[in-house]
Amino acid sequence: MAIEIVPDWMTNLDDEDVAFIKRFLIASGSLKEVANQYGVSYPTVRLRLDRLIQKIQLSESAEQDPYVATIKRLAINEKLDFDTAKILISEYRKHKGGN
């Protein structure tokens, strides 16, 4: 059965994310096995999985403000540090009038 409509959360993933998900599934969810396949430590794979989960949650969130979603995405992708992202979102919401 082919997927005719790709869910929004999947369209926001890059090719590396999809490859990671595939390896994770083939390894039956074993982070230890995935770490062995990539030749990295377990904590490195755990961090990668945590970031992937954050990306998916961000896509699935009810956040309707594209500015806030962009800031969160930059923080998840380590293009912006977490503390700066919090400050930007906080200041934006103050000037916007709440939320």
How are the SSEs placed, and which strands pair?
Elements: H1 8-11, H2 15-26, H3 31-38, H4 42-60, H5 66-76, H6 82-96
- Tell me the number of helical segments per DSSP (H or I, 4 or more residues long): 6
Helical content (DSSP H or I, runs of 4+):
55-70%
CATH overall fold name of the largest domain: Arc Repressor Mutant, subunit A
- The helix/strand class is mainly alpha
The CATH architecture assignment of the largest domain turns out to be: Orthogonal Bundle
Beta-strand residue percentage: under 5%
The structural domain count equals: 2
Report what the structure shows.
The chain is mostly helical and 99 residues long. It folds into two domains: 12-60, Orthogonal Bundle (Arc Repressor Mutant, subunit A); 62-99, no CATH class. Helix content is 70%, strand content 0%. Helix 3 crosses helix 4. The longest helix is centred in the middle third of the chain and has 19 residues, at 42-60. The model has no long low-confidence stretch (mean pLDDT 85).
